[in-house]
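Can anyone check this?
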Amino acid sequence: MSAAATGAAPAELPGWRHVRSGKVRDLYEPASAAPGEGDLLVVASDRVSAFDHVLATPVPDKGAVLTALSLWWFERLADAGLGLPDHVLSADVGPDDASAGVPAAVAGRAVRCRRLEMLPVECVARGYLTGSGLADYRATGAVCGVELPDGLEDGSRLHRPVFTPATKADVGHDENVSFAVVADLLGPALAERAREVTLRLYALGEEVARERGVLLADTKIELGLPPGVEAASADAPEALVLADEVLTPDSSRFWDAAAWAPGRAQPSFDKQFVRDWLLSDASGWDRAADAPPPPLPDDVVEATRGRYVEAYERLTGRRWG
């Protein structure tokens, strides 16, 4: 889905050529390079998606908050010795000719990064049971083929974190799959490395969050390979690179540790205000009719912004703005 299709055309940036837009991000490459070559510029917008729709109403500061939080995590993960390089080249403002850095027009919400061949799977780690994992568990007693004990509830903490990958869908929801499916797609060695680094990253993020009174219920990461490295090669497992965003409220579920109570949905630091309002009678939205969601009221926008900012401040210990 393009940004233009959602009523939010991507910005024209001097020295950069727009490549494509996702639900909330716009991707560019240097205009001086041949198509498909050169570094990439990833710009996080203030767009919000819910129930597979991009909403007409943006949430101010959302893109900047997610970018700043990702950069904070990338630094800490590098210092923690995870053994997983990331795609970030620079977030500093550079010249208008796109020879370095990011354009001033998108400073604070853009990252210049390495071009990668992305793995065709979402790498997900879960330490608590909720969302699609809970639905799988209720239907089968397992999540992505991983058997779990009886009697777990929404919000239950798992005995140990589990790797629950999903295949990427161009339209609609990603599909949860077993590790065996991932091994078939990537090869056993690369699949095992992807599982290992995903679980290690979750463990590091969970420890940091818990120290700040926040629970990391689950997280999704994107992994890629440098151009020229084939997934089937012996070098692929050690060549993996962490990309996109990391440990943000859009890629993870963060809960307030003080309010955690298994057996119900947990208050979260993300766009839950948006989802709840859209499903309420107040919105007047007929989701079954597949009509576009209505514009968000000011109080829902402000409450959603507040949760993103609170997540940033509690995790980093820094004031926003």
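Reply from J.R.: I decoded it. Residues 48 and 55 are 6 Å apart (CA to CA).
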